[in-house]
Amino acid sequence: MPIVLATTQPGEPEIFASLQGEGPSTGRPSVFVRLSRCNLACVWCDTAYTWRFSGDNRPHRGGESFARKANQVAIDEHDAAQKILALDPDRLVVTGGEPLLQAPALTRLITLLRDIRPRLHVEVETNGTVEAPHALDRLIDQYNVSPKLAHSGNDADLALVPERLQAYSEDPRAFFKFVIATPADLDEVLELKRTYGILPSRLQLMPEGTDSATLYDRMRWLAPLAMRHGLRLTDRLHIHLYGDTRGT
């Protein structure tokens, strides 16, 4: 089976070089690969073109649906590897959608890349609901885990899987990033932190927003809350630099 990617434009897979915009690797030059498909549906998702295809009626605040043919492309892993290597990466960020839904193809892709770039650092951005099989897990250097809180609109039984959250909290490669829209969201984060023993050094708070004004407004009240609870704050650097655009 080929690997299925999102597109920057019809037929063009979303593989690009940029600065990592959020999380523990913020500011690092990276090559990004955005895979298509997701098992969750966040109402504020800024990459709804990876899952909300025509006929999908799961709620989204934009209300837009996307033509699958124009927004999804399946390519051979060798072709994907060539496109990635042409960007001369030393850090690869696999994002989505939910990348771990395509574990077999992703395993083959990373194996091909590591054959040529043995020291390639691989990060996977995940919603924290899917387990990577051993063959893939051993290839991953860092998990950027973003569990979805109640304001995402997802049912907690689907979005917060206890065994997965516990496993990630015990994995030193995993860093948690929680999207915060209102001060009340922090109560849910603190409860998850207590329940699963998430270390403060591996827990970051990030304001929800797809424009600079919204992000700055929310950081003004989120920053003192992070200080009060000894937690880290992360911005969305790519939004300030490039706006809410694909391939950035």
Write out key terms for the chains shown.
3-stranded antiparallel sheet; single chain; globular; lyase; S-adenosyl-L-methionine; rSAM_sf; 248 residues; metal-binding; 4Fe-4S; TIM Barrel; 21% strand; alpha/beta
Architecture overview:
By secondary structure, the chain is of the alpha/beta class. It has one domain (3-177): TIM Barrel (Alpha-Beta Barrel). 32% of the residues lie in helices and 21% in strands. The protein has nine helices and eleven strands. It has helices at residues 68-71, 77-85, 103-116, 134-137, 156-159, 162-169, 185-196, 212-229, 237-242, and strands at residues 3-9, 12-13, 15-19, 29-34, 72-75, 91-95, 121-126, 142-145, 174-180, 203-207, 232-233. The protein has an eight-stranded mixed beta sheet. Helix 2 crosses helix 3. It is globular and about 50 Å long.
From the spread of the alpha carbons, the general shape counts as globular
For the largest beta sheet, what order do the strands appear in spatially?
3-4-6-7-8-9-10-11
- Secondary structure: number of strands: 11
The fraction of residues assigned to DSSP E strands is: 15-25%
CATH topology: TIM Barrel
Count of DSSP-assigned helices: 9
| Gap between N and C termini | 27 Å
User: Using only CA atoms, what is the Rg?
Assistant: 17 Å
Number of domains: 1
How would you sum up the major sheet?
8 strands, mixed
- Average predicted local confidence, pLDDT: 98
| Structural category | alpha/beta
Low-confidence stretches: none
Architecture per CATH nomenclature, i.e. the level-2 architecture: Alpha-Beta Barrel
Keywords: 4Fe-4S, Iron, Iron-sulfur, Lyase, Magnesium, Metal-binding, Queuosine biosynthesis, S-adenosyl-L-methionine
Function: Catalyzes the complex heterocyclic radical-mediated conversion of 6-carboxy-5,6,7,8-tetrahydropterin (CPH4) to 7-carboxy-7-deazaguanine (CDG), a step common to the biosynthetic pathways of all 7-deazapurine-containing compounds.
Family: Belongs to the radical SAM superfamily. 7-carboxy-7-deazaguanine synthase family.
EC number: 4.3.99.3
